[in-house]
């Protein structure tokens, strides 16, 4: 029986999040926060220990190699060393947080923690796959665990600049500088290593998976995990291609094509080669895809964005899947079918791993309630943490694909406050979960001019 989740972000930490005004400027314009900023509170009587808080380390000397954030500041990471049996095991988590696809959006981004280390939190809580508690993270709790901060706006893959706007697009160099730093801190002697990432970081973990393998000794067991990084080249509800247009801006502005797999570029255009569906069959290193079949961010900003739905006919459906009519449900099922079709070839390979649940969620490895808890999502009666661990350690073949909605009542579904826009506009593009959300099996969290409001919410189950 799984042990009860005890990780709780305490009230003092929540207040510190609110007060760190300059590190959260993108909470206000546009209204977005990190997936890991959305927290769950327990019953008042439950114990409330603080999570492990890990300080930010800047990569000194990175600027001499051209490895800088959008505004030219030093990149950084958070590192908690391993111990005991995990002393020579390494888990690298690449942070997510959208992309910038225009000069204007990148100029805005460099005034936030997504584009400047000047605005990054000085410490972050390590939860979920980064937790240091065995009861919260059974397979990786005592590994060396690192979160590499994301400040380039192109999934750690761009390499260019814009002198007029004073923008540095150096994601690839940041990736290399971070890896060089970690190798010098002992990763070069790793017995086993897992490269992971959430959302835009999940895309980055696919893009850099084979490169990560080459950095380590052949004797090292190396695998990769992409959480909510499987962005589909989907047609939106108006017949357009919102996400393809967004990715096109990212690729062209930041010259991402320089760092895309040649094997893909030999057959497809660079924008297509930025989509995971066209990348995964080129990855030679064992890769695990953790994704919601009804990815909440893609529903909001790729499938039915405001630009494709000017009259707001999808607003109620997007705010809560329970409000979707039969036609909208069919559109969602078609989206799921496209995802399953796109992973067919990949899923047939013996080394691949899959956990595709039928939830309306986005990023499930960093949240304690979805990673490993008493009521966390299950497939084949197995929580995500156990599935990933079984796959990494070759204890079990994991090819878990959920039945279609509404069959799964273990989901932690995202629900959005009606009347609060979650639009990602053309000036600032992000894959952060909006602040106007709540989890149907946890608590409500809303930011309003620096005020945090928390209220209990009863579970909503699929039926």
Structure description:
The chain is α/β, with parallel strands linked by helices and 463 residues long. It contains 13 helices and 20 strands. The protein has helices spanning 11-19, 103-109, 171-184, 200-207, 209-215, 242-254, 262-265, 296-303, 315-319, 326-342, 344-347, 368-371, 384-392, and strands spanning 32-33, 52-58, 76-80, 89-94, 123-126, 144-148, 160-162, 167-169, 192-198, 221-227, 287-292, 353-357, 378-379, 382-383, 399-401, 414-416, 433-434, 437-439, 443-448, 451-456. The model is unreliable at 1-45, 418-430 and 442-463 (pLDDT under 50).
Gap between N and C termini, in Å? 25 Å
What is the C-alpha radius of gyration, as a whole number of Å? Answer: 20 Å
In the sheet with the most strands, the strands line up as: 5-2-3-6-4-9-10-11-12-15
The helix content, as a percent range, equals 10-25%
Unreliable stretches, pLDDT < 50, 5 or more residues? Answer: 1-45, 418-430, 442-463
Return the average pLDDT rounded to an integer.
85
Summarize the main sheet.
Answer: 10 strands, mixed
The portion of residues forming beta strands comes to 15-25%
Give the structural class: alpha/beta
Number of helices: 13
Mass-distribution shape: globular
Number of strands: 20
Secondary-structure map:
Layout: H1 11-19, E1 32-33, E2 52-58, E3 76-80, E4 89-94, H2 103-109, E5 123-126, E6 144-148, E7 160-162, E8 167-169, H3 171-184, E9 192-198, H4 200-207, H5 209-215, E10 221-227, H6 242-254, H7 262-265, E11 287-292, H8 296-303, H9 315-319, H10 326-342, H11 344-347, E12 353-357, H12 368-371, E13 378-379, E14 382-383, H13 384-392, E15 399-401, E16 414-416, E17 433-434, E18 437-439, E19 443-448, E20 451-456
Parallel strand pairs: 4-6, 4-9, 9-10, 10-11, 11-12, 12-15
Antiparallel strand pairs: 1-17, 2-3, 2-5, 3-6, 7-8, 13-14, 16-18, 18-19, 19-20
